[in-house]
Amino acid sequence: MYGQKVALADLSLEIPSGKIFGFLGHNGAGKSTTIKTLVSVIRQTSGDVVVDGMKLTDNRLAIKQKVGYVPDSPDIFLELTANDYWDLITSAYQIPSELKQARLERLVALFNMQDEIDTPIADFSHGMRQKAIVIGALLPDPDIWVLDEPMTGLDPQAAYDLKKLMRAHAEKGKMVIFSTHDLATAEELCDELAILKKGELIYNGSVAHLLSTMPEKSLETIYLNMVGRQSDTKIVSELEGSDASE
Ligand SMILES: Nc1ncnc2c1ncn2[C@@H]1O[C@H](COP(=O)(O)OP(=O)(O)OP(=O)(O)O)[C@@H](O)[C@H]1O
């Protein structure tokens, strides 16, 4: 609930380890609200989240230590340099300094941020801010990755590398949860999906199963059939008509 507004209703989900789990849904469907609840950024008004048998309401700190979170907006800690931001995470997660240095060197090289370490985040482009946040989220080497639209703004190389990292993490038996509006990425990357519509779960299952419901169709077509406007063609042709008459 946000004040009187119900953002999610009757949401019940089991998210497996060792798989890439994707959240899909139109703007305002409740993806970020679900994710923020999972990572304890906001508190649900009813129900609970259970991680490794631990209830989030009773074990907030212990669970947070397991989670690396990329929020939906990278416009955070703008006054800090990238390095100050990573230092902040290092102390919050109590990462030993040698380990931090080794991990940071690898991540900074991977995301091509070597020349930007001492630049204030405020001076970064959107994609560079996103890279700084992704590096920060992965720095503690968390078991559970929760990434809210992580590819937004990343250049093709960084997006490709992040997808590879996500797959490798899942293959280690770890948990990877992310949201996206990019249905081609979801089709390529996700093993399991949750599709939300106006705060309700309308699909939870494997991508393979969903694709098998309409053989020969892409995830985009199937998704739009489930979630999209039914009168699309009419609206588009009306708009085309008005453009043509101008
Ligand atoms: N801080 C807030 N205060 C009030 N209502 C909010 C707040 N954040 C989200 N909402 C509402 O909760 C609902 C779900 O929003 P949420 O951000 O979870 O959607 P989303 O699926 O992540 O959307 P998007 O794809 O646009 O990021 C929306 O109706 C939104 O208006």
Low-confidence stretches: none
Bound small molecules, by name, code or SMILES, are:
adenosine-5'-triphosphate
Question: Share of helix among residues?
Answer: 40-55%
Strand order, largest beta sheet? 4-5-6-1-7-8
Main sheet, how many strands, which sense, barrel?
6 strands, mixed
**Number of discrete helical segments:** 10
**SSE pattern:** EHEEHEHHHEHEHEEHHH
Structural class: alpha/beta
Mean pLDDT: 90
Percent of residues in β-strands: 15-25%
Shape label? globular
Task: State the CATH class of the largest domain.
Answer: Alpha Beta
CATH topology of the largest domain: Rossmann fold
- Total strands: 8
Distance between the termini: 45 Å
Task: Compute the number of structural domains.
Answer: 2
CATH A-level architecture of the largest domain = 3-Layer(aba) Sandwich
Rg over CA atoms: 20 Å
